[in-house]
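Think of the structure tokens as a kind of shorthand, similar to the way a musician reads notation: each symbol stands for something richer, in this case the local conformation of the backbone. In the example below we present two proteins back to back. Begin with the first one, reading the sequence and then the tokens, and try to describe in your own words what changes along the chain.
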Amino acid sequence: MGCLLDGTILKTLIVYASRYGYTSDCVTKLAGKLHGEVTTVNIDKEKTSDLEQYDNIVIGGSVKIGKIQKSVIQFCETNKVLLLKKKVAFFISCGDQNHMQYLNGAIPEELLTHALSVQSFGGEFKTDKMNFIEKKMIDMIKKSTVKEGKSLPVARYENIDIIAEAINQ
């Protein structure tokens, strides 16, 4: 159990957005590795509570058609001043190895610089929650990726450990 010097329990908030479930799965894994009390909020489905009560805030989302969710961007912009006073970390779920291209310009630079850790959790194609058109698009992307000799998205669970270690210190 993570505690502060005065004996109070550390509180961590994980704020995220997930489209098809991979990011949610990663959040569950991350929450299990963090010390103290952990609250998870999918900001596309729930409202965040008073952010002042948290010692740490982890923020993440997934990429679709080259962009991270607007709700994640709005959360960061709206709460930038407070986030700069907290221990923060960022993650993104995407198959692209160059994950920073999706965060740079979308998330305020001051927040990315302030962050204890910025990681990619990789990605998976979870087609069971996609509609017919999305499934067809993924099939085309897979074929094109293989044809170009590039690798398909893979889970990068080891990066969950990196964020957990940074927050738990």
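Once you have a description of the first chain, move to the second and do the same.
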Amino acid sequence: MNEATMLDAVRAMTKRGVDGFHAGDVEGLMSIFEEDAIRLIPTEPEPLRGMDAIRKQIEDGISPDGIAHQAQFNTSMLDHKVLGPDLIITTGTWELVAPDGDVIMNGYWSNVVRIKNGVARVVLETGGTYASG
């Protein structure tokens, strides 16, 4: 698989995830993760390992009481490196914007992504937040 095809698969995966987020579609969001994915994000004190842990965190985040409920999620890929025939690492920035336009949180991310049969899924997601003030 060539680099351009890999990047197309990553962009399609990102669109699935963002569309799922905006629709409040937990399964749409979950479709971007491998079964054994690990997620390291600033809102969680410990790594989230596997689909059950990741699903619970996503459900909590987009629930009516969650920090991300009705928020706009924006992301931009800044760089990438092909790691192997089916692995790519991508880096970028993200922001979570409240319905009133205020930025709730923003930061950076990197994902290790595996591509099988043209479908990209996250193996390892890391993210951080920019310091405020």
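Compare your description with these statements about the second chain. The chain has a mean pLDDT of 92.
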